[in-house]
Amino acid sequence: MESRGMIWILTWLGSAVATAVVAEFKGRRVMSWFLLGGVLGPLALAAVLVMKGLDNDTDV
């Protein structure tokens, strides 16, 4: 029983970290996506993976 719970916790934590990393790479808000990854797990990771990156080039 305990190992099954630990697997869920590690899966959700891993999803949160992976979601935050992908969000940072795409120019999104890292903390917001980390929290979404913690709540939604793999669904948030899938969502951020299909999103387009933001264009942060503001050079004039």
Automatic annotation (TrEMBL):
Name of the featured protein: Antitermination protein NusB
Highest taxon of the lineage: Bacteria
Organism from which the protein derives: Pelagovum pacificum
Key words, A-Z: Membrane, Transmembrane, Transmembrane helix
TM regions (residue ranges): 33-51
